[in-house]
Amino acid sequence: TVSFCQSCFGYPLSIFFIVVNEFCERFSYYGMRALLILYFTLFIRWDDNLSTAIYHTFVALCYLTPILGALIADSWLGKFKTIVSLSIVYTIGQVVLAVSSINDLTDGNRDGTPDSLPVHVALSMIGLALIALGTGGIKPCVSAFGGDQFEEGQEKQRNRFFSIFYLAINAGSLLSTIITPILRVQQCGIHSKQSCYPLAFGVPAALMAVSLIVFLIGSRMYKKFQPQGNIMAKVVKCIGFAIKNRIRHRSKKFPKREHWLDWAKEKYDERLVSQIKMVTRVMFLYIPLPMFWALFDQQGSRWTLQATTMNGRMGIIEIQPDQMQTVNAILIVILVPIMEAVVYPLIAKCGFNFTSLKRMTVGMFLASMAFVLAAIVQVEIDKTLPVFPKGNEVQVKVLNIGNDNMTISFPGEMMTLNQMSQTNEFMTFDVDKLSINISSTGSPVTPVTHNFEQGHRHTLLVWAPSQYRVIKDGLDEKPDKGENGIRFVNAFDESFNITMDGTVYVNVNSHNASEYQFFPSGTKSITISSTEISQQCGRDFNSPRLEFGGAYTYVIRSTVSTRSMISEVPSDFIDVSLHIHLGHSKELTRVDGCPELKVFEDISPNIVNMALQIPQYFLLTCGEVVFSVTGLEFSYSQAPSNMKSVLQAGWLLTVAVGNIIVLIVAGVGQMSQQWAEYILFAALLLFVCIVFGIMARFYTYVNPAEIEAQFDEDEKKKNLEKDNLYPTLDSVSQTQM
């Protein structure tokens, strides 16, 4: 009788610790991975191609190290000790990565940016290397260790355990990709407020520590087996011997053998050789599969970067770019039971033989079409991008920050600007033909004398007919990663400092503009610091709500009214002065000379909504369901009982190779248009899909159980023959005696 402390509802109590361990570990991994591409681009400030390359190098390592983990577990430490030791490595890696994201770690001058970025890069690379070793090393051990906990006759419970185990993986993935991006956009820091990467990476680190502790708590309940030797090593040795033996006997005087692995029969028994033949037939079909993973794993890189150029506002909900990956996890939970319970039975009733390999072919086709949709979305995004000057061109915008109307004349065009207004857009001119004149009623014409730099945008600040300043804009592209560029123009006669959401604009000079600084979406606090401003004046403001990818000029000017009633102003109203916070009072006495803000739009925010990514996620997830789940089932059905771990290693290897393919394309391709890269990947997978379909057409399904049963039968016959032979020999001997 099994006591309740060892069994619960017919299941070994130990498996509940294993399931919780897997949930926490997957939360830790996917929560960290969801942030990774934006951490590279926003914190470390790598460009998109380098960030994508490092991201996929990390993912590739995560799927190469399972082979190492399997070797350690089967040949040296056993599953339990391997899980514990590599989980410690894993936890240390997560902690190191979280520490690397602390901005104040090297921010000695407290200006909000790290003074020694290489320190952060080095720490993050060390952390990622440890994480790759840890997560990959325990990957082949945890599920197998859970299966070891069941007794003979508990096959039903074991199958349900694997279903619960898979559910824990998806639950951890889903929750983490929702929660950690929310933590990322919070503001934290000791000396300056920044996106809270330490917290966003710290929570996955804490969950990994919890995962290890939970696993250790159940230690006394586990069934632990000693290492039995690694079957992968035997397979490699057998294949190596067959190849060497064939090379040694390549002369024509040696007769050919039916299969190249038959050259291993001199050293290895026929059963092992036959089993390896079955494995190599499946492995041959694995050759085209990495191309699917090359597309699939770009959800966390290219597709997340695409989301940063889109608007995440969906009604009252604001989606962060790295949260879009949750669409995949949600759809997986929905589509897997629908496929198994509805789609596949319906296809079978229609009389169509929808075999495993046909399903995988369809999955590859769907993934290819998902990237066609991604390219279409990218084209729509590109249509909304501003046009910047090229070659000999310059672009000019005029901003009147004075109290009089100004008339501005350009070649072939003249316009009048009211006080505190700007031209509707940047105007493009040939730098060699550009001439600008400023005039006002009762004032002479003033020509603008300035050497405009070709290929750049410029802002002409005007506050009197004879007083102006030309400013070269620091933006030569739309703000990326969904951030907003903000600069301040000082219309006062003295300089002052401005703090916006923890970022300090130092010494903004009179009638001049600051450099652009970049901020994520949301409402930001603004504080003006100056000894010249009266103590009776308010200095704290709120910005209008920032969306995604815009650029704005905030003009600080002096008020002219004496007293007004201030009603509540909507936070997203951009064309009026912003309300000043003085407690909860709505009545405000204004003194001449107090500062107020006027907001002008330089670059419009992103207008293509992230919801347009949902169709491509839907197609890719459908492809994953019919490709990945079916592929694992096919591999197991075609593998001998003792070779399933070999095929599991081969399957994970295809994921690693797929990420290496992305590395090659991102590093070598360097396409100027992102939509073209999407089309390239779609075309490559479509070609591979056709090749795989042809290979699948010639594949013959086998039943490994029947083949192994035949070997068992043959061995029994041989043993019977031996048993019958010995009595005969004995009788002959006695007769002779």
Automatic annotation (TrEMBL):
It catalyses: carnosine(out) + H(+)(out) = carnosine(in) + H(+)(in); glycyl-L-glutamine(out) + H(+)(out) = glycyl-L-glutamine(in) + H(+)(in); L-alanyl-L-valine(out) + H(+)(out) = L-alanyl-L-valine(in) + H(+)(in); an L-amino acid tripeptide(out) + H(+)(out) = an L-amino acid tripeptide(in) + H(+)(in). The chain crosses the membrane at residues 27-46, 52-71, 83-102, 122-142, 163-185, 197-218, 278-296, 329-348, 360-379, 617-637, 649-669, 675-696. PROSITE patterns: PTR2_1, PTR2_2. Keywords: Cell membrane, Glycoprotein, Membrane, Peptide transport, Protein transport, Symport, Transmembrane, Transmembrane helix, Transport. It is a multi-pass membrane protein. One of its GO terms (molecular function) is symporter activity. Electrogenic proton-coupled amino-acid transporter that transports oligopeptides of 2 to 4 amino acids with a preference for dipeptides. Transports neutral and monovalently charged peptides with a proton to peptide stoichiometry of 1:1 or 2:1. Primarily responsible for the absorption of dietary di- and tripeptides from the small intestinal lumen. Mediates transepithelial transport of muramyl and N-formylated bacterial dipeptides contributing to recognition of pathogenic bacteria by the mucosal immune system. Interacts (via extracellular domain region) with trypsin. This is Solute carrier family 15 member 1. It comes from Diceros bicornis minor (South-central black rhinoceros).
